[in-house]
Amino acid sequence: GWGILLGCLATFTLMAGLAIPIMMRELGKRGVTASRDFWYSARNSQGWPSIAFSICATSAGGWLLYTPAEAAVLGGWWALIGYCIAIMLGPLVMCYLAPKFREQVPDSANVTDWVLVRYGPVAHIYVTLILVYYMFIYLVGQLKTMGDMTVKFTGMAPEAGLIPLAAVTVFYTMLGGLPASIVTDWIQACCITVIVFGICIATWGWVDYTPENWEQVSTWNDRGFEMLVSLCFAVFGAEVFNLAFWQRIYAARDVTQLRIGFVVGALMVSVLTFIFGITGMVLKAQDLGKDCGPTIFVAAFTFFDILEMPQTTKFIRVLMYMLVVCMIASNADSFQTAITSTISRALQKQNWAAWKNVAAAQFFLIVINVPAIAFAVYSVYDVNENFDGLAVKLTDLFSMADILTITLVVPLFSGLWPFVTSKGALAGMWSGILFIMAWGWFEFDTFMGGMEMITMMCFGNIKPPPSENGAPGCGFYSARAAIMFPVLPLVTGCVTYLVSYMERSWTTMQEIAAKLPPTTEAAVPEVKGKLWHAPRQCADLKLDAALSWMRPYRMDS
Fold first, then answer.
1. Do the Cβ atoms of 69 and 303 come closer than 8 Å?
2. What is the pTM of this model?
3. Which of 203, 291, 365, 471 could bond to 467 as cystine, CB 3.0-4.6 Å?
4. What dihedral do alpha carbons 477, 483, 487, 488 form, nearest 10°?
5. Is 253 in contact with 182 (CB distance < 8 Å)?
6. pLDDT tens digits for 140-191?
């Protein structure tokens, strides 16, 4: 176990050490001078193959080992198709909108920089807090998965794998910044793709199941369609605000390279998701036909049934552990640099020397990773007899991240066009939170139900029972999620545009009022009494004229 882990990490570190010299040489060949913030952004340096591999490696994290098989086993074909579509939606929308972001704030390093310029500091702080929380939870989830896999594959303590991986990825991202993360993505994406295809195709040849068992798994049902809907919105909301993806928008050489890279990278991840899902289905079909009865009781662990098959050799186990290390390292270094990028623009405005900017970012990187490592270690050991410790429920925090990010989509992206105002965007984002709380309050008839709904009912005192169709009572696989996630963009969008319309209408009225001829104080007393006491049938044309001019004055006063 130690040899595989240290060998992989040493390779990544070597590649990271060569990252900046390699990229500087390439930029020199093209006659391009590296930007002052190259450590943060690798600005305008990457062609589409590099972007595609980076998108694939950044997205293909430890979740692939659990959730595609889980979705396929629980929801059949609809859920698996939904997951494959959902994982592509974020990058596809981003490659369509990316040119506008690059044009409006060309020196940005991430979407949070654009929010600051477009909507101001209040929206910037709010959005940054949500996105840093989202990236932090995903980073903790990856590190915890490394600890779990260390126990499963080597029998060593979780810290033996978790801490070295976190420390090494921090080290080489401190050394090379985003360029180091991108270069390591090349080898990680290649290894992930080759190993996944090799292991899964071999597994398809090993499994043995009857047509009846396959029909039990490969279903088309209402629950699967509900999962398709909720996955498309939940995963889209998370992926479209993946800060690591946004860094690649500014790292791309130009818009054409960006769009090709994002499309190819998204397709690669979608194919990997489909392969993991199919593998989970065939393993579950085989499990249903076992003489001793089914042994897969937790759908998320279906993929690991490969380890129990007689055809699984020590070499296959080594490949699977290498796959785990590549997946988690690729996600961890990307999330680490992505979180750091949120402060890059603020540091640039300080007019510090380049080395001070980099040193400040490296300090921030350590500050983020120390609690992430501590949280991951705690989560690994938080096991109890009720199965509600963080060892089992850490991934439920993803549901909270997903429900929060979906409230940002319409208010933020509407700002690419001039109509939406800062107050409109803030009202839209906050209306999403209020809608979530109101849903919980009305469903469970308590204010705390509203507060707990922000966690999608995964944490708190209220424990909703499963639905009649078997859907869980909490998380983004619950029946309510298939309604909440699609409705939230409608609610936040309506509020964003309504408040923006009201604000712009008020501004227009003020501008019109400012252009009206002023009323002199001397002229007012002469007609003041007549305006209120003269009969409406008065034939005096001069008084009618005075009345028409003075009515605005009287109503304002």
1. yes
2. 0.85
3. 471
4. -30
5. no
6. 888 888 888 888 888 888 888 888 888 888 888 877 788 888 888 988 999 9
